[in-house]
Amino acid sequence: MRKETGGPAFPESCGDQIIPGMTLRDWFAGQALKGLMSNPGGPIQANGVNGWGYVNCTPEQVAQICGEQADAMLAERSKE
């Protein structure tokens, strides 16, 4: 099954060529990642045993959550 990408997020014109850049889905996922990682109560937290690290999740789970958030944003945009 192919994921909806939302098309290019920031296409650029270079002469007669269009450079698509990243997809809107990737941009949404990156924004979700930025929010999660900047939250002190989020997936990366300080602890007394080994400093900063992932808490109650893996990097793969964080990536999955960000992809799910991006998919939800695309679905919301497609509603009329």
Describe what is shown at a glance.
Helices cover 44% and strands 18% of the residues.
Kindly describe this structure.
The protein is of the alpha+beta class. It has one domain. Helices cover 44% and strands 18% of the residues. It has 2 helices and 4 strands; from the N terminus they run ββαββα. It has helices spanning 24-38, 59-78, and strands spanning 12-14, 17-19, 44-47, 51-54. The two termini are 24 Å apart. 6% of the residues are buried.
Helix content percent band:
40-55%
How many helices?
A: 2
Order of helices and strands: EEHEEH
Into how many domains do the coordinates divide?
Answer: 1
Major sheet: order of its strands? 1-2
User: Could you give a short account of the major beta sheet?
Assistant: 2 strands, antiparallel
